[in-house]
Amino acid sequence: MLVKANAKKTPAFIEPMKALSIEKLPEGDWLYEIKHDGYRALAFKDGKDVRLVSRNKKAFDYPQLVDSLKSIPANRVILDGEIATLDEKGRSSFQLLQLFKSSGGVPLVYYVFDLLFLEGKDLRNQPLTARRKLLAQVLKKSPENIRLSDELSVRILGLG
Questions:
Q1: Could you report the per-residue pLDDT of 60-95, keeping only the tens digit for each?
Q2: What sections of 57-127 are H helices per DSSP?
Q3: In this model, does residue 5 exceed pLDDT 60?
Q4: At 98, is the pLDDT very low, low, confident or very high (cuts 50, 70, 90)?
Q5: Has this prediction a pTM greater than 0.70?
Q6: How far is the C-alpha of 84 from the C-alpha of 111, rounded, in Å?
Q7: Domain boundaries, the chain
Q8: Catalytic amino acids?
Q9: Which of 66, 74, 86, 117 is deepest in the core (most CB within 10 A)?
Q10: Is the dihedral of CA 116, 141, 7, 43 positive or negative?
C-alpha cells in the first residue's frame, strides 16, 4: 500500500474538544450544533478495525454501530459524535440509552458532528465549516444509524 509522505499514523486517541464557559458571547457568525441526549464518543476506524471510545478513553460496546462504521468509505478516519437512542417520536432519550441493552429494538444512532482525521491527515487545524463539508461527503452513503448531526448558523450582534 502506498502512503503519502505527509500522511500520519492514525492516533490511538484524540482528546475531544469541550465546551467552555464564557461571560459574553463574541460577535460574529457562529455555528451551533444540536445537542443530543447521549454519550459523547470518538469513532476510530483503521481499515477493518473500528472502535468507539468515550472522552475518558473507555470503550463502548455497541456492535451494530461498529459494524455500520466499518462501511464508511474511508480507510483511516476519526469521527467525533454522540451515541443516542431515539424514542417513538424520533427524539434522543438518555433514559432509553441507559436501558438500551435490556430494552432491545430501540433505534441506536451515532450522530457525527466533526471529522478530526482522514486518511493520514490531521484536520483539527482546519476550520470547522471545512471539516463538516468534508464530513458530509464521507457520510453521504453511510448506513441509516450513522448520521451527520444537524447544525444552526447564527449571527451574534453587539448591543451598544
A1: 999 999 999 999 999 999 999 999 998 888 888 898
A2: 63-70, 94-98, 100-103
A3: no
A4: confident
A5: yes
A6: 7
A7: 29-156
A8: 35
A9: 117
A10: positive
Q: Cα 30 to chain center, whole Å?
A: 19
Second-level CATH architecture of 29-156: 2-Layer Sandwich (3.30)
Q: How far apart are CA 84 and CA 157, in angstroms?
A: 33
What length does the chain have?
A: 160
- Report residue 57: phi and psi, to 5°: 70, 20
Q: Which three cell numbers stand for residue 31?
A: 455555528
Q: State residue 156's pLDDT score.
A: 60
What percent of the chain has pLDDT above 70? 81
C-alpha span between 150 and 32 (Å, rounded): 9
Question: Which long-range contacts link 58-67 to residues 24+ away (Cβ below 8 Å)?
Answer: 62/108, 64/108, 64/145, 65/108, 65/110, 65/145, 65/146
Indicate whether 108 pLDDT > 60.
Answer: yes
